[in-house]
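Listing S7. Sequence submitted for prediction.
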Amino acid sequence: MAIAVLVGVLLLLVLRQPLSDWLWPDTRGQQLRADAAQALAEGRLTALDGRGARELYEAALALDPDRPDAREGLARVGEAALAKARADLAARRYADAHAALALARELAVPRARTDALARELREREAADAGIDELLAKAGAARAAGRYDGAPDSALALYQRVLELQPARNEALEGREDTLADLLQLARADLERGELAAAAAIVRRAQAVDAGHVDLPDTLDALARAVERRRANADAALRRSRLAAALAGYRAVLAAAPDDADAARGILRVGGAYARRSERLSSDFDFDGAAAALRIAESLAPDASATSAARQHLQRARRAQARLGGELPTAERRRRLAELLRDAAEAESRGDLLSPPGESAYDRLRAARAIAPQDRRVRAASARLLPAARACFDRELRGNRLQRARECLDARQVLEGESAGWREDRRRLAQRWMAVGDERLGAGEVAAAQAALASARALDPDAPGLDEFAERLRAARSAAEP
């Protein structure tokens, strides 16, 4: 019994306020209105901590919207704010007067009264600020080329005058001329290729006067410059000038953050760095492969090409260790000579790229794992390159696309990402799209999807790839129940 009584007392203590609010719902509202009246009497019209008269009356009104007391209290707060604005104006506390006037407007004090006080406030500020002096300083700043970016710059001073006297003609003309000067600087930045600086000026001019007469021409010039920089980046990417392509796409995004083509371009650069990492791994240039992979991971961390490059680098390191990385020097030399001899024999038999594991190419790849910079290894690579090219052409003509991809990969190891290799890579991607189109026409959506994946892995920028992907998405949607 004693425990039950103790628990009951504790429950009453803990639940006293909720029970009070449930049994006597107006108790909380009365307290809020009383606190609000006290805050109003003490001049605490508004407060960030919620203890101002405005916030307390609003809380009471939210609790019981049908009672007029809180609404009338808010009206009294508005009147008090207007009175405070007048007092602050008389005392030349202009910042406080602006804040109190803003509060009066928010609390729906009649507009005629707030507008009248606002006019009086501007006139008094203008008289104290010395409009003529501000205009003179603005003119001097403009003449000195200090157009913007500081409180004493021409644009800032003209804006200050217009806040005080919105119809002041000298300030309106001065601001227009200053914006014209700034936009001229923006066009000069565009001629120098400084897109980000030009875009920042254009955005500033739009914020100040979106209807300025020079804005349309400058916006057109900016759009053309952005398009040129993006096109140059595309061209650099096609030529495998990856650093230049990346810099170009980043310059576009600095000027136009919403440019989707530039964002996709950066992902394509990431894919190209991943493919470069694979090629360097195949050449057992592990430092270069790791550096290219780091860039790919920073640009396209979730791309399948990045994951494939990471795995390829790991396999290449294991292969080098297995094929001779841990062998003594004499044994490495003996193994290298044996592999080169086997490669020459396979070459003499005509087994250039097949059978797997026994071909001249496979023997040479093992030799490259042991000594990638050896002059004999490089000479053998040069001899095999024509065979790899012929293999690709032969397999492509026979529509044996998987085998053609193997020949193309061999070429990448032997000759690098040359212009001819890039052209053939695109040819193979387009052939895969043709296969996918045929499978899609036959209703074989899964086979068409696999063909699309093969084409995209070869060349993400192949013409028609996006259109084919869209058709495939539409076909999948139509096939869903």
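Caption to Listing S7: primary sequence and predicted structure tokens for the chain studied. The mean pLDDT is 83. Residues 390 and 407 are 9 Å apart (CA to CA).
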